[in-house]
Design a protein that fits this description.
The chain is mostly beta strands. It has one helix and 23 strands. It has a 23-stranded parallel β-sheet that branches.
């Protein structure tokens, strides 16, 4: 019924939980063990106690799980070599009048809150150059609140500089719609912040509000709509509002690149009350990949 509560801590540190990371148990193993606990078999809260945790293999997160950290104290660092730290799995909501698309009631939602996520922190280069920090499967219903996504820029010349690809992206999962919500999140050190490529049109929902974003694009010699944007999305119901967005590369000057190759139904796109700046002083709100910008 989604009422269980489990904690993960660090047995070698000061925060001891129900399941703990130690010299023989990795964070991924502790997480899997916690998810298997019958107390959260039908959903519940998984509290990650304050500490620094290394992820060296992708962790699969089922629906109805709230992954919550301790504010300003839970740091999860990826060393996964181009596979995401977390994979958010789809959920199955009840249909309304035969519509199999998800409607996203909070009881079935996966959530992340009060956590800082990093691509590598050992002094070497980015490990997620062709992957995102988190991958959301189609059909998932997930929210991120007060989550920091920290990518990595490799040392060297800025032209075509290697970096973390994105904070969150989508991948094939179910044939249901996808709901992803960001609220009070922070993005930095990324080529693109969010890639929402679900292609179910008016049944898909993406909300980005009250966030701070710094993105770098590809840092190539010329502009590309596919890589030089803060957010890339297929046609969906999109709400981007009340965000601060800053570009740190000359050609990275688009807020939203919209893939219009697949359009289903009548979607609504709202971009309002966003502010920020680009390095070259020019910018596009939307690039629909057909050569039209606004």
């Amino acid at each position: 019924n989604g009422s269980g509560f489990i904690s993960i801590g660090d047995a070698d540190g000061y925060a001891i939980g129900d399941y703990n990371v130690n010299s023989t148990t990795t964070f991924a193993e502790a997480f899997v063990n916690a998810i298997a606990d019958e107390r959260i078999a039908n959903g519940g809260v998984l509290l990650i106690l304050a500490g620094k945790y290394i992820v060296d293999a992708t962790i699969s997160v089922p629906a109805k799980i709230s992954v919550i950290g301790e504010i300003a104290g839970t740091y999860i660092i990826g060393e996964t070599s181009n596979v995401p730290l977390f994979l958010i799995r789809p959920t199955n909501d009840l249909s309304i009048e035969g519509d199999t698309a998800q409607f996203g009631p909070p009881a079935t939602r996966t959530s992340f809150e009060n956590i800082s996520l990093f691509d590598n922190a050992d002094g070497s280069g980015a490990t997620l150059t062709s992957s995102s920090i988190i991958t959301v499967q189609q059909g998932a219903n997930v929210s991120f609140k007060n989550v920091g996504f920290f990518g990595k820029l490799n040392a060297g010349a800025t032209l075509n500089r290697v970096k973390t690809k994105s904070a969150v992206s989508t991948s094939a999962g179910s044939t249901q719609s996808t709901h992803v919500y960001f609220d009070y999140c922070y993005f930095d050190g990324l080529q693109t912040a969010i890639v929402f490529d679900t292609k179910y049109g008016d049944k898909d929902f993406l909300t980005v509000q009250n966030c701070k974003v710094r993105f770098f694009g590809s840092e190539a010699a010329s502009y590309s709509a596919l890589t030089d944007c803060a957010i890339k999305s297929s046609v969906a119901n999109i709400n981007i509002s009340n965000n601060y967005i800053y570009s740190s590369a000359n050609n990275a000057n688009t807020l939203l690149t919209l893939d219009t190759s697949t359009s289903v139904g009548n979607s609504r796109i709202v971009c309002t009350n966003n502010y920020g700046a680009t390095s070259n002083g020019t910018g596009n709100v939307i690039d629909n990949q057909s050569g039209e910008t606004s």
